[in-house]
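User: Before I run my own analysis I want an independent prediction to cross-check against. Here's the chain; please return only the structure tokens and, at the end, one sentence I can use as a sanity check.
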Amino acid sequence: MTITHAPTITHAATGTHTTTGIGTTTIPASDGTPIGPRRRVRGARLDDRFNVVGAAAAGIAVAVLLFGWVTPLSGGVGWALVAFLAFLGFYALLVSFNSDAQEVKDRVMAVLLSSAGVLLFGALVFVVAFTLVRGQEALPHLNFFTQSMELAGPLDGLDMGGIVHAILGTLMQISMALAITIPLGITTALFLNEVGGRFARFVRTISDAMTALPSIVAGLFVYSAIIVLITHQRSGFAAAMAITVMMLPIVIRASDIVLRLVAGNLREAAYALGSTRWATIWYVVLPTARPGLATAVILGTARGIGETSPVLLTSGVTAVTNLNPFAGPMISLPLQVFDFVKSPEPTMIARGFGTAAVLILLVLTLFAIARLIGGSGPGQLSRRRQLRVVAASERDLQRMSARGDLIPGITDTDSRPRPTSSPTDLTTKETSS
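Assistant: Structure tokens:
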């Protein structure tokens, strides 16, 4: 389709009529025919690769000259820092040969951000790999996962004793903390966003202040409020309450931010259709923010499952398995790591690193489970949910056909293909289901 706003020009030699390109808008036909090769938006050009490789080589050469020949500098960290700074300088110089000042700034900033991401990922990989390597002496033993330390001493080998009591204690404590934190945190975030008011501002201020609360203060609060006044003994329940105090502000803050990102026109559309406030929250707001809420729970769980200071004051240290969270001490994995590594015996230190490796694997497992519960984003249906939506549409079609409510001109025996549901219709149908 062509919309012409320019005059027509007649060629004297051929007698043909053409239209000038000025003011002409051409919309290509959407018949699926490729117009040209697909442009690689994220691809790197040859000169970009040359600039990166050349600047990296020049930076390494400068660092080698400074640390090996010119100056009496030494140290691996200093060498890496000098090489990186020289790399940035040479990269900016090479980019400036073919680009203006603004593009040079953009390229240097992109390199800085990419380097920061690589550095953080490398640090994470180093921590995980170091823990797994140091704990490889204890991890291959089956008794490490099936026995407790009740019959094992500091001088016993790794073929005796284990951390099953710490694993069960961690699972029970974090489960009790999540049972309190998830409904209370998400409900508070919904109150802050959907209700509001002066009290909501006060609650948001308190939750933001609790985010920076030291963990030892939370442990002292629970120790004074629960152990000293009520139970008079350390227990898994008291440790779960201390973990809840640490997790709750994280979940509230993250859920608050996620719920703010839900588009307001979704709420307006639900209200326009006659939906109540709480029906809108349940059927529109929460399904839309579900992946973000799952991420908020992940952040809170990661904060609570690795806490040691509040658990040290509230749960107590024990070498036996205790399945009663309301009576007797119940140790957890972080506290077990602390108890192991403070021993001077090599076998106990190996058990400590093995326990830390199990804790890391447990966090990764909880992360995967939370991602499965969170599911995909709004409008992205899995294969099973798509089949369920199609089946519901077929049932609606049969019901309308039986009542005679079909579109005029289309009967139940009509052999013409019926229009399929669009992705928007599938999403709307899934939400209403």
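Sanity check: Residues 46-134 form one domain.
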